[in-house]
Amino acid sequence: MTHASSLHAARRRWPLARWVAGIVLALCVVLPVYALATGHAFMLALMTRIVVLAIAAVALNLVLGFGGMVSFGHALFLGLGVYSAAIPAFHGLDNGLLHLLIALAACGLTGLATGAVALRTQGIAFIMITLAFAQMFYFVFVSLSPYGGDDGLRLAAGSRLAGLTLTQPGVLYAVALVVLFAALYGTRRLVAARFGMVLRGARINERRMLALGFPTFRYRLAAYVISAMLCGVAGVLYANLTQFAAPSYMSWAMSGELIVMVVLGGMGSIMGPLYGAAAMLLTEEALKSITDHWMIIFGPAIVAVAVASRRGIAGLLAGPAGAGTAATAAPSPAPPDAAPGNDARPADARSTAQPAPARLEVSGLVKRYGGLLATDNLSLELETGSIHAVIGPNGAGKSTLIGQLSGEIEPDAGRIVLDGRDITRLPVHTRSLLGLMRSYQITSILPEFTVLENVLLAVQARQGHSFRFWQPVAQQPQLRDPALAALREVGLDAHAHTPAGVLAHGQQRQLELAMVLAGEPRVLLLDEPMAGMSQAESQQMTALLSRLRKRYALLLVEHDMEAVFSLADRISVLVYGRCIASASPAEIRRSPEVQSAYLGDEA
Amino acid sequence: MSFNLFVIQALNGLQLGVLLFLMAAGLTLVFGIMNFVNLAHGSMYMMGAFIAAALYNYTGSFWLAAVLLAPIMMALGMVLDRIALSRLYDRDHLDQVLATFGLILFFNELARMLWGPSPVYMEVPEALGGAVQFFGIRYPAYRLLVLAAGLLVALGCYLLVHHTRLGMLLRAGATHRDMVGALGVNIRLLNALLFGLGAVLAGVAGLLAGPVMSVQVGMGEPILILTMVVIVIGGIGSIRGAFYASLIVGVVDTLGRTLLPALLRGLMERSSADIAGPAIASMMIYILMAVVLALRPQGLFPVQRG
């Protein structure tokens, strides 16, 4: 595809979403001016409500849409923000900056504490715990009788900011709109920056992210706290809109409505929360004008939205499914200046330097599952410059061995020592940063990201300091150059901007290897890299591995015997978790014990 | 705080505990077996209470109402499963949360349309109107019935899950769902039965709670959230865990609300104790949950898998 035609394709795919976004944002500016000029107080109030709740929805979208954390308690932070204005105002403090500071501190600390507990779990438990924490604060405010308890508290005075009072309708709207625009732009930057890449990656494939060396918990917690604080800001604005604070602002119903907004608008899209907030509140108003019992229609409508579609309004605007997740997620990186396919630099002219030599020693490793011995007193060594292959029939414990070496499975006994350092009890991501990296028997990549983005993440993990919230990763040469070098090494550079999910199986295996290489490993643990490959692909992979031998200490688990015997310097044979032979390929070929194990001569 | 009051409050706590168990038994099975987030379970509780009150007022007999309620709730649960929930089995949790949130709004509005916004009162059945005397304590007979009925249902659940063919399929389905399907068991029917059974149990909880608490729109959600706390503490999918955690949560919550304010009054000024007491008391079970999660993220009695 030439440069011009790719631009054309981009223009064809984008216009509707862009136009709608532009029109909606313009309406946000123009309509209130009209409403103010013509005295439509109700219209202005409704628009303010849309904008303020859209800010809260943007906050929720960060954890729900981009981070994949289904928080059913985000109204808690909205409510804390509301009380952060109402309680100081009750005591005669009407400084808006103070209100904001209290909201940021209260939501930040509460988010940190509740997030640290809730994020220890996932799935259903996470949903229930976030809901329970919100309910806890709800009851606390119900029982705070000095501040109105269940009956709520009138906002005694509007927040004053730079000589303006936020309770004035025009002023409140203008401030809310500025905050919303800032939040939308901030999200756009954040999700394309290093931090956002890790957050989104952890939603798609957490195991791979850990294996790359990212402590995903910290990133999730940081996103949760940021989201809580933004929600608190929305709360301060909301207090000035309703001029009232009540525990019901942090009830489960409010949390549910925020989720509806995010999903209706389109999860994990930048503009989605604004669309969702507008669509939901306008539907609500329309239904209210038909019947008092509007929820009898609204409830089933939500069920229908849940059953029908996941992509929401932003997804519909972006065109048919599969038009590229980058379209709904984040601005995709620009194509490289030179067409990558024409880049005919030879593979060995790469910038990757020779890594420091490594030595991995395993001694007396034991892993039991009930009565089954998956690893039986196993010892082996790996050294830079040689390939140690592990073979054995299915169920011999080969993948269990790799799992223990990489840190995903905890051994019952034995020691794993890397360059004299005992790493037996270190977590996966720490081992990865020490240079011990693995590939999986079943390909583990991030299918929604482009090929280049997959590898960028691996480079990023190696460089550390991924708590960067602003600079798009695609524009950072210190990430891009090593990533492209790794792609060149495995021969995938022509596909750099293809979504990884659409690659052929063999190419996905190559991509996984590129990710591992880009993490600058010293020890490579490869779990059946040739599994499911065509003969031509296997031969390519064999050639690649033999080139890599010089640089790394390589452990190869593989069923393709042709590849094993041509590559390995040493072969260990596992049967029922026990190493029955460990010798050179020539000796293994002759060993009667190995032959009987493979030919089933046990009887 | 007299000893008698302590015993009465402890009994009240156990009574809340058995109500929570009736809710938790159905919900934890749906969570554990089907990996399904059903927020509408609280609505089944509310519908059960309203329908029971209507039946009771119409027939004049609490017992007849109880007998009629069971098949109605079974049907309601199974219909709900077929119309809406079964479409969401294989979807991710977010869709399930969203859909069942919509169902809560629907049922709350439905109840408001059918029975009005103000609470409906359900009388304690005449035969149980009195109080029972033991160890010098007077305790309402009806509340003892709630306790006994709850324990009986708990025993029934245990027998069903551990000593019947259906229970064996349920337990097998909890750990090896695909395998049970592959063995030729009608998983769809099993799922529908499970929802129906859960609805019956929730409905019975609503019936039992009716004469003690007021029957009103929105009564399902507070108890749903308490039930979720129970399930998290007990371990998702574990009936045994749900049983113990229900009793723990019921007793801790009830005793906390009565004992803590009194305790704080001894420690600080009366005015601040009157504010802090209820506030801290309402946080107790959530703090308990946080502590359990910090020590054992899988809950106290996790289901053994693998």
Automatic annotation (TrEMBL), chain A:
This is Branched-chain amino acid ABC transporter ATP-binding protein/permease. Pfam families: ABC_tran, BCA_ABC_TP_C, BPD_transp_2. SMART domains: AAA. Residues 326-355 are annotated as: Disordered. Keywords: ATP-binding, Cell membrane, Membrane, Nucleotide-binding, Transmembrane, Transmembrane helix, Transport. GO terms for molecular function: ATP binding. SUPFAM superfamilies: P-loop containing nucleoside triphosphate hydrolases. The chain crosses the membrane at residues 16-35, 41-64, 97-119, 126-147, 167-187, 217-238, 258-282, 294-313. InterPro entries: AAA+_ATPase, ABC_AA/LPS_Transport, ABC_transp_permease, ABC_transporter-like_ATP-bd, BCA_ABC_TP_C, LivM-like, P-loop_NTPase. It is found in: Cell membrane. PANTHER family: ABC TRANSPORTER ATP-BINDING PROTEIN, CONSERVED COMPONENT OF ABC TRANSPORTER FOR NATURAL AMINO ACIDS-RELATED. It is a multi-pass membrane protein. Residues 360-601 form the ABC transporter domain. The keyword Transmembrane helix applies.
